[in-house]
Amino acid sequence: MDLAFTKEEQAFRDEVRQFFRDNVPPDTRRKLVEGRHLSKEEMVTWWRILNKKGWGVSHWPKEYGGTGWTSVQHYIFNEELQSYPAPQPLAFGVSMVGPVIYTFGNEEQKKKYLPRIANVDDWWCQGFSEPGSGSDLASLKTKAERRGDKWIINGQKTWTTLAQHADMIFCLCRTDNNAKKQMGISFIVFSMKSKGVTVRPIQTIDGGREVNEVFFDDVEVPYENLIGEENKGWDYAKFLLGNERTGIARVGVSKERIRRIKDLASKVESAGKPIIQDPAFREKLAACEIELKALELTQLRVVADEGKHGKGKPNPASSVLKIKGSEIQQTTTELLMEVIGPFAAPYDVHGDDGSNEAMDWTAQIAPSYFNNRKVSIYGGSNEIQRNIIAKAVLGL
Amino acid sequence: MDFDLNEEQRLLKESIDGLLTDSYDFEQRKKYMAEKGGWSKTVWLKLAEQGLLGLPFSEADGGFGGGGVETMIVMEALGKALVLEPYLATVVIGGGFLRHAGTDAQKAAHVPGIIDGSKTLAFAQLEKNSRYDLFDVTTTAKKKGDSYVIDGEKFVVLNGENADTLVVTARTKGDRRDKSGIGVFLVPANAKGVAKKSYPTQDGLHAADITFTGVEVGPEAVLGNPEDSLALIERVVDEARVALCAEAVGLMDESLKTTVEYIKTRKQFGVAIGSFQSLQHRASDMFVATEQARSMSMFATMANDFEDAKERSNAIAAAKVQIGKSLKFVGQQSIQLHGGIGMTMEARIGHYFKRLTMIENTFGDTDYHQRRVADAGGLI
Q: Which of A136, A214, B144, B192 has the maximal Cβ count within 10 Å?
């Protein structure tokens, strides 16, 4: 047991940090610090800088453009990225559909899609959830019918994040109605520009428009857009969700937010003194920092374990990451609300175009608090995570 | 970064787990509790035979040169088996003072007896009103030629009944809450003027309240600087806190395991109660709390080697907070999920709950340490 980072790992951290300092556009960083939404151009610009450096798809196998880093290096990279902060790679392409394609796709699909994912030539979105299929995802109804060399797709997806920017979608579709519900699903990718695709934005309680409903009305998709085998889509979906185990704790994001809380709390006054000097507030903040430190260590345990024993058998502690990570992210947004107090109220209808720069930054704090309620709901709600621990870890 | 045990550490874990599996089931424990001082000399000598009592001492002092990870392994195992023997008082705390401040002569006088199991120690620190502040000391040590004369009262001294030597904190100058002027003294338990009142503690250990009346000790009793040893005391108590964190992780592991086994077998309404989702989620939360505690126990073990004393103390305080929160949740919910049987002395689980509960209130509770972390400006 050796609980310290090696010299090489520390040097790697310095290298990564310096690269972010030199290359993240300052305005992009500022918007992230202030909890603003970025425009599509701002995100794509940054991802291409990252890709040019060779770090765009860092965790992919080397033959597809990955870096060959150790688990600990990936951890350091992610933590530095989140806490600088810089925009994280587009998960839908880089972490979700990319690995499915290089693991289960054919050579042609790999050649066609992977470089475009890495350079964000295509913006991908995820077609999983449906109005009637949330936690019970396998009950999904969107139908893909084989007609000659085409699929005809009909149905509706929802909570489709940033579908308004998307060029491509990876979609779970029912291809066999007679099989057990998990056995009749296929994994199909297609263009969002196809005829019969309609995107309708959903405004969330923070006022933002990150998520959408997507309707499919007789959408024609080439048969070859099926990834892997027909009716095996559920397996690929499980593989895809399993890949996201360690990133989901978002330790770096919470660290960055705690630094921001401290910064603001040393400026905002309460009872004639900066609120950071209020013992009750300070202890709440300390409690949150301690939880975060514990989570960071738990994450490192999972990372070190994966590095040593491979990703095959998940470390039981990995189930903790989603639950605690989301709770802590939510607590940090609560603490920010507490810091600004009555100035949480002014309303700012922010767009995704970043056109509201003149607005006082405090206007983003309440929206960020509202928006962060999602983190204990998405990616398998925290109640589902508890079911998973009970079943898979405790054997109940 | 590597959280796996190396070969030697794995062997250490196997050896102590093996020893305790053989000699520390619930019925055997009851017998040990009834022995003089509340623990078993036989088990203690077995620990000595396996080299566990000499673990943290340097090879030059006759020990094995074990570090923080080795102590963590032992303390977790002792927690898991709910061990009564005074490892914390003798090896971790008493041994800690000798390792950090003992002269060659003092080490020669005390360490061999610790290692071979013939001598035990106790830490006489707590006072009536000191609560968790280590610098709050009213017991006095007045200089008299080459000697010191100790007067005062110490409370809840773990292993105070059996210990051969008492490690006593006493003030050589200054006022009650001054941070300087505190010394540490090795006082023979049978010295003239030492009066003990012994009793069992809530968690089945034994402690004593000890009065010192004109107890005269020679220069060989003085550990470190008699006028400025607070940093030494903090160093050793930090190590004790780290050890308690590991013990608590062992206790939580066993509590969770026992509770999950119970709800798998206990049937109501014709089914195992573990099939109910409300109980499953509670057990999952216990697992989360235990893993977070384990992470912080490891962090504390790592922090124990930090060079900067403030950084070390802050990290260990943070660990004690997490352990305190986790142990309260795991302990309480273990009883809740056991239902009525959890309330009885005959079930194991209640004894784990009681030991966990006492750990929270030893060397600073959750609120105390949370305030320390807050006052230090947090961790980030």
A: A214
pLDDT tens digits along A112-139: 999 999 999 999 999 999 999 998 999 9
3-state secondary structure A160-223: CCCHHHCCEEEEEEECCCCCCHHHHEEEEEEECCCCCEEEEEECCCCCCCCEEEEEEEEEEEEH
- Tokens matching residue A19: 């690269």
For residue B285, which residues of chain A lie inside 8 Å, CB to CB?
Answer: 386
Give chain B's mean pLDDT: 97
Record: contact A1-B5, CB cut-off 8 A: yes
Q: Pick from A298, A323, A396: which is nearest to B283 by CB? A: A396
Query: Considering only residues 295 to 354 of chain A, which have any Cβ-Cβ distance to chain B shorter than 8 Å?
Result: 295-298, 300-301, 303-305, 308, 316-317, 319-320, 323-324
A276, two tokens: 């950071």
The model's confidence at residue A311, banded by pLDDT at 50, 70 and 90, is low
Shortest CA gap B240–chain A (Å): 20
- pLDDT single digits (tens) B192-206: 999 999 999 999 999
Q: Indicate the burial class of A32 (C-beta count within 10 angstroms; 0-12, 13-18, 19 or more).
A: buried
- DSSP β-bridge partners for residue A145: A152
* Positions in chain B short of pLDDT 50: none
Q: Are B135 and B368 in contact (CB under 8 A)?
A: no
Cross-strand partners of A274: A269
What per-residue confidence (pLDDT) applies to B350? 98
Q: What is the pLDDT of residues B307-352, one digit of tens each?
A: 899 999 999 999 999 999 999 999 999 999 999 999 999 999 999 9
Query: From the CA of B253, how many Å to the nearest CA of chain A?
Result: 12
CB B287 within 8 A of CB A393: yes
* Interchain contact, B281 vs A304, CB within 8 Å: no
Identify the residue whose tokens are 């030697």: B8
Query: Residue A176 has what DSSP assignment?
Result: -
What is the rounded distance in angstroms from the CA atom of residue B255 to the CA atom of residue B277?
A: 20
| Token pair 């080795």 in the structure block, residue | B70
Which helix (H) or strand (E) element contains residue B367?
helix B366-375
pTM: 0.93
Q: What is the set of active-site residues of A?
A: 244
| Tokens standing for residue A281 | 């507030």
For the cut 90, the answer to whether the pLDDT of residue A308 exceeds it is no
Predicted confidence at residue A352, as pLDDT, reads 44
How confident is residue A36, by pLDDT bands cut at 50, 70 and 90?
Answer: confident
Burial of A310 (0-12, 13-18, 19+ CB in 10 A): exposed
Query: Residue A5 and residue B1: Cβ atoms within 8 Å?
Result: yes
Could you count the other beta carbons within 10 Å of the beta carbon of residue B143? 12
Residue A361 confidence (pLDDT) above 80: no
Q: Closest approach of chain A CAs to the CA of B224, in angstroms?
A: 31
Q: Which residues in chain A are closer than 8 Å to B280, comparing Cβ atoms?
A: 386-387, 390-391, 394, 396
Name the residue facing A1 among B2, B280, B291 (closest C-beta). B2
